[in-house]
Design a protein that fits this description.
By secondary structure, the chain is an alpha+beta fold. About 25% of the residues lie in helices and about 35% in strands. The chain contains three helices and nine strands, in the order E-H-H-E-E-E-E-E-E-E-E-H. A hairpin with an 8-residue loop joins strand 7 and strand 8. It is globular and about 45 Å long. The chain starts with a strand and ends in a 5-residue tail after the last helix.
Length: about 140
């Protein structure tokens, strides 16, 4: 199974888009909310810039996550390539922010080659959105 397999999740938060964007693109904020190994996150948030955010599972296993930024429109859109072991081309994940008054709608889309990849992407993306929701509700600090 290939092509046409994708994952799309949406969430609406009572937070301005700029705050959501910073939580997604600032290494310290991302590390604190996304199960990353302390001091391990690096983000060069510009087209062609590289990022890394090794995740630590609840069992303590470190999962290397790396890729590159493909498209960046501050407070509106972040498109990243996610390196997938064994694949020549990265998976593409887009985080689109749509501000409506005090709320921001987040749409997270990711391309996948197989149903298994889609299921893994959906699980990982749900974890990221859940942790973002908690992080912002607790009142992020710089």
């Amino acid at each position: 199974m290939s092509d046409g397999c994708s994952c799309t999740l949406t969430r609406t938060l009572d937070t301005p888009a700029a705050t959501v964007h910073r939580a997604w693109t600032t290494p310290d904020a991302y590390a604190r909310r996304a199960y990353a190994a302390p001091g391990s996150v690096g983000m060069d948030v510009r087209p062609g810039g590289a990022w890394k955010a090794p995740m630590v599972t609840p069992g303590g296993t470190e999962v290397p996550l790396t890729g590159s930024c493909l498209d960046v429109h501050e407070n509106r859109l972040l498109v990243v390539g996610v390196d997938v072991p064994g694949r020549a081309e990265p998976s593409v994940m887009a985080v689109e922010l749509d501000e409506d008054g005090p709320a921001t709608r987040i749409e997270l889309r990711q391309t996948c080659d197989t149903a298994e990849e889609r299921d893994m992407a959906e699980q990982g993306s749900t974890m990221l959105l859940d942790s973002l929701t908690r992080f912002l509700a607790e009142g992020p600090t710089g």
